[in-house]
Backbone:
């Protein structure tokens, strides 16, 4: 993560290069703010892959996002919610959101993230997975939650950092991975961001 | 949780009674706000118990706090951090906070909460426990985290909802229990608060 060994045309990278977050997600920005990490956010223009196993998919998309932004140190993240081999994206409308939540009710699903750090020619990508168990939701629970409008723009149709917390019985793994950024992986990839 | 069956001197309780949080904790207030639950907060004047097993201790203290506030529907919560039978309270100074964090480094500790709901003569209390695994912390990690001052007023000396998130490898259980309020238990005790 220091200078490139050849000393050629590639400019030197140093830990003082600011972090660029290749994302338009307010949740990811909020997490970096919570952690006190200085960054700038740039929305990547990228065609996302849709096929493959969750781990492969989120790693590929995280890399595509990070590569799509031209900066010295770029962080790309992609998240997918899966249950029984089905990938739950962002619901298109309230009816689809209700279907997602009903499918997740009383079950344990997985939230996968790919996280890519691209510093010039140096690219790293890792995956993180957290298990999330929903309580059994009644029709009344679904009505109340859908009325919050939180399902919009959220993979799986819920926001664990909002009122969606009341849908969750327990988790196993990295909580912030479910919110949108696998912080434990980020610490391993870039300990200098955390004073380590 | 509706009217008392005798119809006697006890005033009727209804779900429209506002919730009173017997706590001065800003984290507990923030969680109820996140969940969209209307409440008022009142600091309880209570002598806390210090002995006994974690489950017993946090349930007793949660009840004491809830009983100490005179209102129709009172929520009391108490939290303890434990490892190897040792209870970690709030550190008195930075040196003690460093000792706590060094003891938790690379290990899995437990965060216990007692949660008590007192509605006139009706009292319920439940316990919740979440396992939290810290990554191995270097001296430099400790220095950086202690400099944030987050250890103040936090059982165990860290704030998972703040920069302390970067100390955590994974959790098992209810995340908000670690922040300060076992929400999954609250849903079971008072589903009406969540539209259920």
Residues:
């Amino acid at each position: 993560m220091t200078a490139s060994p050849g000393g050629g045309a590639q400019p030197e990278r140093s830990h003082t290069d600011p972090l660029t977050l290749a994302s338009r997600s307010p949740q990811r920005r909020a997490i970096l703010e919570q952690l006190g990490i200085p960054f700038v956010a740039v929305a990547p223009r990228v065609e996302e892959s849709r096929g493959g196993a969750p781990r492969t998919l989120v790693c590929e998309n995280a890399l595509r996002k990070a590569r799509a932004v031209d900066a010295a140190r770029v962080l790309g993240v992609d998240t997918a919610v899966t249950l029984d081999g089905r990938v739950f994206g962002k619901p298109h409308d309230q009816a689809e959101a209700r279907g997602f939540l009903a499918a997740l009710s009383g079950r344990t699903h997985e939230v996968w993230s790919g996280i890519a750090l691209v510093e010039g020619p140096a690219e790293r990508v890792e995956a993180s997975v957290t298990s999330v168990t929903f309580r059994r939701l009644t029709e009344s629970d679904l009505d109340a939650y859908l009325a919050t409008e939180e399902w919009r723009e959220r993979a799986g149709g819920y926001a664990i950092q909002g009122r969606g917390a009341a849908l969750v019985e327990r988790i196993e793994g990295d909580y912030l991975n479910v919110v949108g950024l696998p912080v434990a992986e980020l610490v391993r990839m870039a300990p200098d961001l955390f004073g380590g």
